[in-house]
Protein 1
Amino acid sequence: MATPGYWQMYKQPSSPAGQAAADLRAVAATPGRAMLGIVRRIVADDASAGAELIGMLDYRLHWPDDQVVYIGMLMVAEPYQRRGIGRQSWSLVEPWLANVAGMTSARLGVEQFNNKALQFFEALDFNLTGESNRLRVGDKLIRLLYMQKRLAPNG
């Protein structure tokens, strides 16, 4: 999935070698965690023509607390950004999280320098909690700003 702009924020030309495989292993090893693909039909009116992966949603149920879903990532490939795909993807999964999975709130962390992501999640009614955390990514320390929103059943 093409997201060079994200990795450039970390001064990387692209995702580190083996990143996708490591992410899939981590998802498989973590209870309550799943990764959903966002796909686009190659031929709009012919499902049999196949699809391509254009985004993904990584989440973990009941973490860090019961009835809280932690959104690890909601990312859309750069050629497809700013077309409403991320918003539409969230609008499809949010009711499922509330009504089927029984989550009452969603939480996520955004890098403090990722203004586009902060604005995107604010537009989805996530609010900054005032909490932050520093973590090491490669040889850099970054600050995550935490955001949260209530999930309404039947919403």
Protein 2
Amino acid sequence: MSSMLARPVTTSASIAVFFGVLWMASAEVAQDRADVAQDRPAGMAVSKAELLAMTPLWKGERYADGRPKFPDHLLQRMKAMSIEDAWELLRKYGYHNQFEGGWKILHKDKPFVGRALTAAYLPGRPDLDEHILRTGKAETRIGRPNSWPIDMLQKGDVYVADGFGKVIDGTLMGDNLGTAIYARSGTGVVFHAGARDLEGLLRIDGFNAFVRDWDPSEIKGMVLTSINRPIRIGRAVVLPGDVILAKQEGVLAIPVHLAEEVVVTGEIIAIKDEFGHLRLRERVYTPGQIDSPWTDEIKADFFRWYKARKNNPSIPLEEIEKHL
């Protein structure tokens, strides 16, 4: 009888030992994977997994590397937005560090928009320089490091680089790289650094550049440290995939998940302003009436005018009314 009772105890003990061994084996495998991940070189560009984790609020299309891809048709509409209207909406959502001004601009009368591809530079130091060159060689990157971000540009991208404000020996491009940038992106650059070959850059039809200043020196004493990671441009924080709106006032980095709302809101505000300015010139309403919440009478007047207006955007009237 006692031997029969002992068997379940032995079996239970065996099962416990089995699962204990299995748990320890699983823990060892998990630790090995963590050690491998920790030891794996990060590389010059951010990983797809990190890009996805960095921009979880974006639910739309992405590039193969994980960078958000804001739609082309909305990018074209974004170009008509005012910096002030877009900035005001971003502040509403708590994004207070998205604008930077004080640029030298290649063509002040040619605004541009695009998706940010970011790069960061640091002052050079020999051991770090060698590490970056080894990393680039292992990743089969071609040429000098300041050309590597250019090789990754897609149509509609804007190359945004933090060169820590360096101008003398901080020229991130001349007309050769400028030509390559425009051939790949069709837009322009935003460099918290210098640029050279102004006359040559002016000959690149359609290209634009926002830089800290122009200087004849060549790049020296700088090292590229990352591609497509968060960077700081003056007081603006830029993430890869942000929508860049570059106008005379300066540069606005719009978080991609808010960009469509910026477009729609900006178009409504522009139409509202168009109506308001017209009625002010006609002296139908006073400035106090136009700048205050509109009465039902003014709203009715607006919608009569709007229905007769040509080339209206495809925005529901209910959405427009929310902003009156």
Protein 3
Amino acid sequence: MPEQVTDQGRGGHEGHEGHRGQRSGPRDARTYVLLHGAWHGGWCWQKVTPALRAAGHVVYTPTQTGLGERSHLLSQEVGLETFAQDLINFLVWEDLRDVVLVGHSFGGNAITAAADRVPERIGHLVYLDAIVPVSGQSAFARMDPDLVASRRESAKLTSGVLTLPVPEPTLFGATDAEDIDWLRAKCTPHPISTYEQALVLNHPPGNGLPATYIAVTPHWAPTTASRNYAKERHAQGQWSYMEMAAGHDAMVTSPDVLARLLLELA
């Protein structure tokens, strides 16, 4: 049975610290790289990072091309491989190793690509209610066809099929008025090409690295296939699997609980 985590909490935020490299500082310090999902950016982790840094860990929150503070780089050329290379280059150029690499939602694609290509830089993979990609299959290929059709139609109507418009924050599980306003202000349209394209993996997802899947309850429909895959890996004794009561945007709706779970993986 998966571990159940049910309490919820909220936290503040603090600025990014420019630490680098392998474990530094306290003996048990780790490096966390927290990767956002669709429509979001590195900003979405602001309520989680203070607890990790207060415990002596180093935390990075990169933003993928075309989103957040990098939304000015959005173009037809931005695709799923762009996202994969964004993260891989970040790990390489920051000279990071033994990282706890966390991917939320759509971020599961890029962390899987990183595990496939640069496993020596990763100590633990964490899929936070995330997509676990299958080699050669797009994200859309693993989602409900009616949902896919709806998203494609929305993209056609709002951007000529360049981007997926930002959903209402309540669909991410946000209920607090302040959180809803924050998400509305910060989320940006997401390049639809990243949902249409597929990664080609040379190894099974995770590439043999320690991996944990954290699913939220109530479950979020678009990650159903990935959640079931993670349960299978757990049943085979390969991955850890747990569930927490939170919205899909657990880093926004339940940051304190999420931070405690991530600290337990250090």
